[in-house]
């Protein structure tokens, strides 16, 4: 298995992180058909039902393993008032509800097959203010956010899959290529507008409030439906150098062992992750992104090769501007067929033990992202994202062939994750949702779980947003 740029982008497409914006159920359906016509009349946007023109174009979730999800109705919300009306309608009719930004929920929680979906994609305005803050609609895709910011000379740390929605990424944390320098996406949240099910109000949320804190990594759909974000941005870096280094079969152990020391010793202006690629003799692929010029990037590559004792093949080596780099990493915006899970490494891993997880696994890769530098400058309770002061996150990723069914794919991933959990004891990343995750609440939220549960109970006391891996109280 070789890490081509296309393969890297397939991994990164899901690694961008995309939790469900919100999904839930108040109770079992009351045995009567909701009055969809009445809701349609109240909305500014369209309400599409099964077999209606336009429904199929917006229905599919990102993950093709869950392509069987067909919600009875999808609302094309155009403003926060549409979201409020949809949320209220779901509560009154005791039906499942989900708000969807990019639709990248790993297990399609944002596309329930038996509920109402509030699709936010039309709420995609991006406004960059003179003071450097950016107001972003919850339906904006990352690539559109990056283009709007770059036009004003600004940047925001975020994920590498351009079709991911800003909402899911932010609410789950938001890892990406600028994070060692600038931290997570949620670290830049400066305010939001949220529709809360407690009173069906559109609230302007201050970052210092309990609700504002909960939005900084507390997971999508747990407290309300966020319709707008305000971010503190940073100056766009004038020069960015990108590359991918592929290392041969049999080098996975040595390259990973070298990489984990190399990346943490690198300047904060540099980001890299590593994919240990499964097979009889695991290989490795190492992408890199430097906020600087070509010469320094070449020196970094040479240092990694020296540490690993293995020569790699460099591809995609380019110096460009910030927007060019974001476009480079975004790649194809198409859908994927995959199963995945994650574990957080509290400390560096034994290289042989880690690569052994994918020895013989020809369809599985381990993608490891560092969570050091600026990410770990923040203490675990300062934001809702608790995975601070750790080494990194490991994503177990399986690219599923068309003839592989969902349960088979999940079983293969879960088997690897279970063995990984024996030494990766730091929890799991909520934007890499796994519906079989053991002790999921503690794994995702760690020390912040009690405070997050309290916020969910406060703003959603009736459990309108309760779902399989949600924090709202489960309705009786």
UniProtKB/TrEMBL annotation:
Gene3D superfamilies tied to this protein: 3.30.465.10, 3.40.462.20, Uridine Diphospho-n-acetylenolpyruvylglucosamine Reductase, domain 2 (3.30.43.10)
Boundaries of every FAD-binding PCMH-type domain copy: 67-236
Any Pfam family the entry gives: FAD_binding_4
Cofactor field: FAD
Keyword Iron-sulfur listed: no
GO molecular function: FAD binding; oxidoreductase activity
Keywords: FAD, Flavoprotein, Oxidoreductase
SUPFAM superfamilies in the record: FAD-binding/transporter-associated domain-like, FAD-linked oxidases, C-terminal domain
Residues in the signal sequence: none
InterPro entries per record: BBE, FAD-bd_PCMH, FAD-bd_PCMH-like_sf, FAD-bd_PCMH_sub1, FAD-bd_PCMH_sub2, FAD-linked_Oxase-like_C, FAD-linked_Oxidoreductase, Oxid_FAD_bind_N
Top-level taxon of origin: Bacteria
Entry annotated with the keyword Oxidoreductase: yes
Family to which this protein belongs: Belongs to the oxygen-dependent FAD-linked oxidoreductase family.
Protein name: FAD-binding oxidoreductase
Species assigned in the record: Amycolatopsis rubida
Lineage: Bacteria, Bacillati, Actinomycetota, Actinomycetes, Pseudonocardiales
């Amino acid at each position: 298995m070789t890490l081509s740029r296309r393969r890297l982008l397939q991994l990164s497409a899901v690694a961008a992180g995309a939790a469900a914006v919100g999904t839930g159920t108040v109770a079992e359906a009351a045995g009567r058909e909701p009055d969809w016509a009445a809701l349609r009349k109240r909305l500014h946007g369209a309400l599409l039902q099964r077999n209606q023109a336009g429904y199929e174009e917006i229905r599919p979730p990102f993950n093709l393993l869950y392509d069987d999800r067909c919600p009875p109705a999808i609302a094309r919300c155009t403003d926060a008032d549409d979201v409020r009306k949809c949320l209220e309608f779901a509560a009154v009719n005791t039906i499942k509800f989900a708000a969807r930004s990019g639709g990248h929920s790993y297990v399609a929680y944002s596309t329930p097959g038996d509920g109402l979906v509030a699709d936010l994609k039309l709420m995609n305005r991006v406004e960059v203010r003179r003071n450097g803050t950016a107001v972003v609609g919850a339906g904006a895709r990352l690539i559109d956010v990056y283009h709007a910011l770059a036009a004003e000379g600004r940047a925001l740390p975020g994920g590498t899959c351009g079709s991911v929605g800003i909402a899911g990424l932010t609410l789950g944390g938001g890892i990406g290529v600028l994070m060692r320098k600038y931290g997570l996406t949620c670290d830049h949240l400066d305010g939001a507008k949220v529709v809360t099910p407690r009173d069906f109000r559109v609230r302007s949320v201050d970052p210092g409030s309990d609700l504002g804190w909960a939005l900084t990594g507390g997971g999508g759909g747990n407290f309300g439906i966020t319709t707008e974000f305000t971010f503190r941005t940073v100056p766009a870096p004038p020069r960015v150098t990108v590359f991918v280094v592929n290392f041969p079969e049999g080098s996975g152990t040595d390259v990973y062992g070298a990489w984990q020391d190399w990346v943490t010793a690198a300047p904060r202006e540099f980001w890299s992750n590593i994919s240990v690629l499964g097979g009889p003799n695991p290989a490795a692929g190492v992408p890199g992104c430097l906020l600087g010029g070509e010469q320094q990037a070449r020196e970094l590559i040479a240092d990694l090769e020296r540490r690993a004792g293995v020569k790699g093949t460099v591809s995609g080596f380019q110096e460009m501007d910030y927007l060019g780099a974001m476009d480079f990493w975004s790649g194809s915006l198409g859908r994927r067929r995959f199963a995945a899970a994650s574990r957080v490494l509290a400390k560096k891993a034994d290289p042989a033990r880690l690569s052994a997880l994918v020895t013989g696994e020809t369809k599985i890769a381990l993608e490891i992202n560092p969570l050091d530098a600026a990410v770990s400058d923040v203490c675990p309770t300062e934001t809702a994202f608790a995975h601070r002061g750790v080494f990194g996150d490991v994503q177990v990723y399986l690219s599923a062939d068309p003839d592989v069914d969902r349960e088979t794919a999940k079983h293969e991933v879960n088997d690897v994750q279970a063995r990984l959990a024996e030494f990766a004891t730091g929890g799991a990343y909520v934007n890499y949702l796994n519906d079989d995750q053991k002790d999921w609440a503690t794994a995702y939220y760690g020390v912040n779980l009690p405070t997050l549960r309290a916020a969910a109970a406060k703003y959603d006391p009736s459990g309108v947003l309760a779902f399989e891996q949600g924090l709202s109280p489960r309705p009786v």
